[in-house]
Design goal:
Strand order of the largest sheet: 6-7-13-11-12
Radius of gyration: 20 Å
Structural class: alpha+beta
CATH class of the largest domain: Alpha Beta
Number of domains: 3
Strand content: 15-25%
Bound molecules: flavin-adenine dinucleotide
Shape: globular
Number of strands: 18
Largest sheet: 5 strands, antiparallel
CATH topology of the largest domain: Uridine Diphospho-n-acetylenolpyruvylglucosamine Reductase, domain 3
Amino acid sequence: MSWRKRSNSDWLRALPGVTEDEPLATRTSFGIGGPAEFFVESGRVEAIERTIAGCVERDIPYLLLGAGTNLLIADAGVEGLVIRVVNRDHSIEGTRVRAGAGLKMMRLARIVADANLRGFEFAIGVPGTVGGAVYQNAGCWGREMNDVLVDVAGFVPGHGKQTWTKKDLHLAYRTSALREGSFMGALVVEATVHLQRGDGEEAKRMMAKLTAERNETQPIKTKNCGSVFKNPPGDSAGRLVQAAGLKGLRHGAAMVSTLHGNFIVNEGGAKAKDVAALIERVRAEVKRRFNVELETEVELVGRWK
Ligand SMILES: Cc1cc2nc3c(=O)[nH]c(=O)nc-3n(C[C@H](O)[C@H](O)[C@H](O)COP(=O)(O)OP(=O)(O)OC[C@H]3O[C@@H](n4cnc5c(N)ncnc54)[C@H](O)[C@@H]3O)c2cc1C
């Protein structure tokens, strides 16, 4: 690869806090995947922006990492630099809430309930960060980021700091211009959401109820990545997988959950290639039985070839 030169490795090694060959599996909810060639974790926005700009200038591939709850990282790991974004500051002004990209959605859901704000209860079902939730337009129980977002502060290498409206981000079902579009590779720095005044205790009761219901219908306490597939229009991926008789299907230590067809569970020591093989088997069978092409919601990253 063209970026592999001594001067680039020296630049990477000189980054404050950088490590090499850093395990990533423990930084994902799946518990799967090889190491990052180079790894850095930072909550300092200016430093992250400088690092991204430096990577782009030098053609060094980089991957932004949040809570790792929507990723299947290849067994061979990730080439270049993995940057874990952990800026977790937040502020509340009236009904507007600004949150750093590294703050967990679940944590923010509790913070805003404590502030007697309503409309963010859905976030209790999203274990990722605010940055990952913007990237993915994450949502749950019929609500998604698109419903609450005001704007997003971001950084585009070569163009600097920017503020994006919802329209700029082209938020759609589990995607955005950050995932597929003009802002690929850009950094979400922080997001501002607009909520309603209300009874925070009621919000907490509602979140507890939703969580309890979910614990009964989804294998939340296992190692998994949430929904593996997007729901096809007018249907549910879980229903199709179940109707195809694929619940419990195994490949190595990866298994289609017996509780919910749209979850794949790492039973312990599963390889990324096991999960990828299982994904392909499920897609092929659902296509054969129902002529529906399932699209993955989980993102496959790293050295797959
Ligand atoms: C048990 C479980 C339940 C789940 N339930 C739901 C659900 O109900 N609804 C739902 O939508 N999702 C759900 N998910 C999936 C996941 O939590 C969301 O997709 C979440 O938005 C991912 O955020 P993350 O921080 O983990 O991102 P990661 O998995 O770390 O990264 C995902 C993508 O986001 C990008 N990214 C992360 N941070 C930034 C940033 N600061 N700037 C730019 N790009 C960034 C990464 O580069 C990567 O491409 C679930 C996952 C699990 C494990």
